Amino acid sequence: MSRVLVIDDEMEVTSFFRYFLEDKRCDVTIANSGREVDELLHRHPSPFHLALVDLKLPDANGLDLLAKIKTRYPDCEVMIMTGYSTVKSAVLALQAGAKDYLEKPFDDLESLENIINSVLLNPVGNTEKLNMEAAQYGIIFSNSSPLQKVIAVAEKLAKKAINILIEGETGTGKELLARFIHGSSLRAPYPFVGINCGAVPESLLESELFGHEKGAFSGAIRTRKGYFELANNGTLFLDEIGEAPTSIQVKLLRVLETGEFMRVGSEEIQKSNVRFISATNRNLETEVQNKQFRADLLYRLEGVKLSIPPLRDRPGDIPLIAQSYLDKKYGGECRLDPDAAEMLKMYDWPGNVRQLLNVLNQTHAIHECKCLKPDHLPPYLLQRAEHPDNPMPIDRQIEDFIEREAKQFVQSLVNGLSQAEQLHLKKVLDRIRKMEGEIGRKVIERKLSETNRDRQLLSKKLNISMRTLRYILNEK
Ligand SMILES: Nc1ncnc2c1ncn2[C@@H]1O[C@H](COP(=O)(O)OP(=O)(O)OP(=O)(O)O)[C@@H](O)[C@H]1O
């Protein structure tokens, strides 16, 4: 017989659960306050299998009770009971080890029953199953990884009707996580539609999101559905939401509040039922303070926030991700040498997993090796392993900045070019090649003033030889 502890100061709630759980042949104990819980734990009753804990008691906080119960009975699963306004604290409870949370009022008895049954019938969480589910979406991590907790919480949130904001540096796997949440949710049979708010030019973003009527603007030769319509009943993934221009932020807010929108060029109100998952590598709270991002929009998008730790904070994941990638790409023909794996673990990875995969690709392309050894890796990785205390050869922020700008530029160019009926692609690519020289020359010209036109000093600052500097300046 399962022993269940119900902690709530509201009589209706405790009576409801007594009836509900006794019907399931559980042995139910009730506590109405934090003080009663303390007394109970002090008396050392036999272990509980499950505790249902109200988040807000007059004399105690559910998060503190969770910690006390878990210390006393580590195997007892704890479910937090919460109102909508305290869902964010309930998510903190998930991160602190609660099994799940139940939202008050308990209108949806069927899902309440499912959640409670799943804990009573399957008391020990199955981490292996979770790892396998995440792997289906390409998410690899080690058993000791801090990412495991994020995935476990995400899996629980997936089933709730709540918008999610994913934070993380570039290349940490925000899009993979968004796909995992969609796939683990009840919306899984419906579309997952993603849009990169930073990559679409402002003039096109509105029609991409909301669609347009035929003739709404020059080039609108036929009526087109926008992403909101396409994602109906599914998930809309707003990548790089921090880049959305202010005009679009206002329109997004309206859709989030009402589910209503209008196609560009139409006055007919349409409705769409989507769950929003947004992602950002910026700190949106700071953006709000700087008036770059609307506070009301952030509040709506961030029903809850999940943060993906950077790769350098989970070095144990690196060999697993690397080997799994090599296996997939080269059909098991390339093995990662343990010393090379150690070197990969010592690097800081400012571009995170994406950068790791690029390094593996480049290394394999150059050496075509069956076993990837330390000597095959790029010199800056060797340097890092030999002098772990040295500062990074390239400043991480600059590298991040370049990665972001380049990605945005490429996307926006591709979007613009794909509108053209006919194209001289070679001319376009020739022009783009010229940009390398233009950027090099402009950076040098600006920087020369910082060194009082001392070219020798500047070549050192820029890590290039005098010959390269002259070459870039077209001086031959
Ligand atoms: N845990 C992981 N295991 C294996 N591959 C991963 C993992 N995380 C990310 N990747 C891979 O790294 C690359 C970048 O992932 P993704 O696009 O999801 O990152 P992101 O955070 O959304 O990036 P950005 O901020 O630039 O949009 C992809 O190739 C993805 O498959």
CATH topology of the largest domain: Rossmann fold
CATH architecture term of the largest domain: 3-Layer(aba) Sandwich
CATH superfamily of the largest domain: P-loop containing nucleotide triphosphate hydrolases
Helical fraction equals 40-55%
Terminal Cα span = 86 Å
Adjacency order of strands in the biggest sheet:
2-1-3-6-7
Instruction: Characterize the main sheet.
Output: 5 strands, parallel
Mean pLDDT: 87
The CATH class of the largest domain is identified as Alpha Beta
Tertiary shape: globular
Given as residue ranges, the uncertain stretches (5+ residues, pLDDT < 50) are none
The amount of beta strand, in percent, is 5-15%
The total count of strands amounts to 18
Give every kind of bound small molecule, once each: adenosine-5'-triphosphate
Count of separate DSSP helical elements: 21
Total individual domains: 4
Keywords: ATP-binding, DNA-binding, Nucleotide-binding, Phosphoprotein, Transcription, Transcription regulation
Domain Response regulatory: 3-119
Pfam family, one: Response_reg
GO biological process, one term: phosphorelay signal transduction system
